Queue: 4 jobs
Job 1
Amino acid sequence: MTSNEPTAGRQGFGIDVGGSGVKGAVVDLDTGQIIGERFRLDTPQPATPEAVTTTVAEVVRHFGWTGPLGVTYPGVVVDGVVQTAANVDSSWIGTRVAELMSTALDGQQVTVLNDADAAGLAEQRYGAGRNRDGVVVLLTFGTGIGSAVIHNGMLLPNTEFGHIEVEGKEAEHRAAASVRERKGWGYRKWTKQVT
């Protein structure tokens, strides 16, 4: 599918770079719904900028997407520059990720945002946070724990609640979905760790 095929709604393309997988899908920008199936490849190990960018390009090419795309990254991103790399290779720090990926994708426009911030903005626009005043908080549970905080419609970027220490250990090392899976916990036991 390409960005110039006729459809019922405006389309965008999103890539989520995670600690264990790189996922991509075409999204209806009017409804927030995924169009068709998402496509996933394992995050390469080591998860260096170059290796992950190659994987991102494979996902984009799988769909034949030629338009602009959004990429979410599992860490702090300020003005397109990666500041942290908790669940990917530390060589990401200082990487101008949008420029790197745009070059690998023959000049396609790439916008990069913290993964949980993107989820929070989507929840505000399409989900439970829609038309809400005050504070909206969203937590994501995967390889790590991500967070988004929106106050009166404005994103407070890069909050990274998963890195708050709880009893001497980062919260995501106690309660991320990856911890639940690794320890074989059921949801009841996992919920106690989360709360």
Job 2
Amino acid sequence: MADPKPEPSSSIPDPPPCSEPTSHHLTIPTGLTHDEFTELIPSITQFHTYSVGPGQCSSLLAQRINAPRDVVWSVVRRFDKPQTYKHFIKSCSVKEGFQMAVGCTRDVSVISGLPASTSTERLDVLDDERQVTGFTVLGGEHRLRNYRSVTTVHGFERDGRIWTVVLESYVVDIPEGNSEEDTRLFADTVVKLNLQQLASVTEALARDAADGNNKPQVM
């Protein structure tokens, strides 16, 4: 049975007082070409701009994936199965009768070795047409308070080649006793490793699909 695809909608909180907008649209993320970045600036401005208040930090990361956009989105959109590519997640549970729509929640268990054990998260946006999703951390046993993230999936085609760029950004409170640099380094590392795993998973899916299409027909 195909996954339900809700109407595009979102639940984005109001900006904090005394906040300033991020400038992710001014700096090319590591791994992107200038041409890719130029094409993505409108999406970065629309979906990856945050109002950052005192005691918060934000970042934008990018991952190029050698797989079609729809293949990548089919994995990214599954709010109920983040462990498919987020390998720091041990398990994810949702309530009985779960429907993937804005406002639904998931309870995540994190692998040992990280300064976290559980996280309760709410789906803020799921737009299948524009391929945008995002969530907010509501609670749990961890140090990343008020963590909010947005992920967008973008298809490219040049000279007969097809590939995808995934952008993921976040804003988060800086824990007491930590510096902005330490907080960003930790969060960036987790996001970067997740995006690398997403590339491995979806490129394998694309190869399997291509191999299946190339198999000889049995008469």
Job 3
Amino acid sequence: MSNNTVRGMTQLTRMRLTDPLATAPDLTGRHAIVTGGASGLGLASTRSLALRGATVLIGARDLERANTVRDRLLEENRLPAERIALAPLDLIDPESIRQFALGAAHRSVDLLVLNAGISSVPLRHDRAGVESQFATNHLGHFALTGRLLPSLGRGTAARVVTVSSALYVRARMDLGDLASTGHYSPGGAYARSKLANAVFAVELNRRLAASGSPIRSFAAHPGMARTPLHTTYPSAATRLLTGAIARAIGRESDPANVGVMTAALHPNADPGLFWGPVGSKTAPDALGEPFKPIATDLATGTALWNTSERLTGIRFLS
């Protein structure tokens, strides 16, 4: 283990944790928020947290569908109704984010899982003209985190876990063309949004540590997970190809969730590492690996933070 410090974070060599959820604490009395918590990886997070006793608030765009999922989850796992709550949340809509945060303002938040996202969609823009994947996957979560920071401050050893992707290493942070006015690649735009997720997680942790806050920020990934995101690719051929790859080497959402839950709950998880599943597809260990330099570069982190504050109008830890 190295004691080198990278931007306020303890930088470790890679770390493998066997059966990482065996040490997960009892979460009775703890409060968690999971964006996109009614499908795919988010649903796996909701289930894991609720089964350990946490009260989980799901942020969802489609409340009707989310309510059906909630009812089934409660019934199948014999959970009390108050264990899982729902609230509308559209991460591309600043007013929706504001209203969601207001609804959670009265409570302490011990865990915020930034999971919701869109993948490889045709070119669209938010109201400010920002490409929709960057706006949804990064800017929406940035604004939500800023608005929820007081609630996180009232939590117990609170953590923020941002769900990124190993694809971040293939992207570059072009903050000069967030509208994607040049050539638009749906997959490339998705990778850029996942790079923004990784950079944000690192920069958030640096700023939290510098401010003396006990809150910590982590990034995690699902490996190649078989989730509903694979149905959002614009081309039928691409959907078939990515679906076939996911079926061949991928993980169902629960095993893929090991990295996220390790980052969220494991006492030895370190925010200097990028957490994901490794090994068995059905009972994987958790592997934490050092971030690539593109995610830990101080100038990139500062530029992304400043740009995000300007575009969202939400300033925090500045």
Job 4
Amino acid sequence: MGSRAKPFVKWAGGKKTIAKKLAQMVPLDFCEYHEPFLGGGAFFFELYNQGILEGKKVFLSDRNSELVNAFQVVQKRIEPLIETLKDFSKMHNEALYYEIRSWDRSEDFFSIDPVTRAARFIYLNKTCYNGLYRVNSKGHFNVPMGKHKKPNICDKETLYKAHEALQGVVIECCDFTKALEKVGPKSFVYLDPPYLSQGHNAGFASYTKQLFLYESHQKLAHICHALDSKKVYWMQSNIAHPKIIDLYEKYGITMIKKSHIINANAKKREKVQEIVITNYKEKAWI
């Protein structure tokens, strides 16, 4: 058996460890797949590996423009991306890290070639502290360099497998509200929003300069109710926070596992009960 497609970046809250379990809960029959909180794409890659998406239209999106740009470049411009990553790998040191990190402070940042920006994104992910993606209120990446002895900056096999998996996929940078506007009946939507903190209004949500607060979860729940009325299948990963349970009390809720919300400060890492919410019955699972 050949190698499997998997995330080419580390992402807080990624579903790599439970993707196979989640795949068992996918509805039996659907025509399109939508994932508006893409992150590292672990669940998408698992569905691809199992052949569940074969013959289906796939729509992936996220509002993090640098993440989406990286996916688009892996999809369409893999060769120049790998060459640029090889160059970064040869030159890697602390000075280079902080120089490359500072690029987004420039007004000309978004005029940089998409391949170079994608290579920057992957390079920082492979060499920063704990693979943590975090930006400040200005949208500037601000994670310090990690203590990696030999970071695998250019993981060619993983990049090529991701490239194969992404062929024919629609990848867009947009908010979840826009991504879900035109989803039709018998489509399947997987939702993995930033989690609420047990003790605060938001958990780790600094993927973009706009935080994902409880009001965003309320908006998402409203959209889920609308999707349900349109006969759209949806599955959502979240935590057993009382406010979340209240928003989805009429749907099926399955306890999955307990895990820790990522935080640079070990004392602030919270252990939470993860849940899966579905608007379809268990008998409709694969």
